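Much of our argument rests on the idea that a fold can be written as discrete symbols. Part of our work consisted of pairing the sequence of a single chain with a tokenised description of its backbone. We regard such an encoding as a compact summary of how the chain folds. The amino acid sequence and the backbone structure tokens for this protein are reproduced below.
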Amino acid sequence: MTDLQRHPPSPSPNPGACLITLPHGAITGGITTWAKRLAASLAERGWRICLLLGTGPPSCDAGTLGDLSSHPHIRVVPGDAHTPEAVAREAAALAALRNSPVVALPTYTSAAFAAVAGATQRLPGVIRTVGVVHSDIAYDRLNTAAHEPLLTGVVAVSRDIAHGLQAFIPAASQRIEHIPYGISVPASPPRRQSAVGRPLRAVYTGRFENHQKRVAALVEAHRQLRARGVPLELTLVGSGPLLAQLQGAAACSPGLRVVTPDPHLGSDGVVEHLDQADLLLLPSRFEGLSLSMLEAMARGCVPVVTRVSGAEEALAGLPPAGVIVDAPPGMDDHAVGAALADGVLRAISLGVETLGQAAFDRARARFADTLMVDASAALFSRVTTQPPRDWPTDRPLVPEDFTVPADACERTARALASLHGAKVALWGAGRHTRAVLRPALKSGARIVAIMDDAPDPAGASIESLPVVGAKQLPALGVTDVVISSALHEDDLWGRRAELESIGLRVHRVYA
């Protein structure tokens, strides 16, 4: 059954036109899934939809959007979601079809928002921009604040995000609406084999990477549970850069399995695994509102998740619909695995079947896809009746780079100048470090490594410098660590005690 068939037609009273930009292409992930579901459901209600894609992996583009391009009300356009000309061209075509303003939903990047801003200058009065904030990270808050003059509406996918935006952007507080993701919820949860007399079954669904998802902690959770006498069978469903590493771990870990579903099956392949599992394990460092968590709830599969954005909203209350564990972003894999193992034991004590029924009931009451589409359609219809907020012509379209300030190289060099001759690691493997590294290597300090909370598989490097975890620094002779992140410096500085406890000195760049 296709996604379009799952959403029976429910015509809107005043169907309009909507342009969704996906600047990374239709990569596998929550935002692409959200865009696909929203586009399909709005099209069935009579809306005209354009999905404007940036350059992404062609193999992902083909599978993740499924049959959207075959729908007569949906146009999928690859290749140029970052250009004002393309946004203006597609918005003009949509406006002509509906003879009404077009709702634009830029995603991911400040450049995507800038493209819509430029299009409003080319089509005055035609576009109404709604910023959908998908993640509770500093970049998304700063991006939304920078484009506040453009936004007729702002959607926060979790209550945590909504409250954070209202505090961070008071000028936009009246335009911020909380519209959670929606998922397909059956009439009743699937029937499972009784857990009595068999191993507990758990699943993870999502990308195999450590920066956000911390999948390495799942292997540790599995090991610790079996060591505690809990014969857990854990299936990891997905793909990503850590696939080979996880397959290697599974080869020598009884009860651990790795599955890479056919991307052309979309969510159907995942649903089969959720229907067989008792628990979903999700060790994320950060989320907006985890679709993996919601999809598990819709199948009566109990989430055991870290305390990230959206977790309390979905699982807390009476009766609880899952288990939330505390595992801060800087916690190592061993400790995160222990926290997840404790969460599994907590779920067992509360009763997995009881929690599963509560999870299903919560998903049906709060996160059914019709609720998301009803709220979105109402908002989009409302903003088209409001005055345009075209981007001012006296403001530059290219926004500030929130991750790499203009003086980043100068400041980093200044911080390194006092460390002449010392063996130094830069803390952070993101865009900031990549931007400042070459000038930093000429500073006189001996930069010998890049430290990251989620180092990539063994052998990863940047400019021939190894990317390692904190525990590997002493063996490299590192004595000093310089924080290399404008966005997260305060957070990393607050966590310096873990490095100081192993004899390292920590230095700031932007203080």
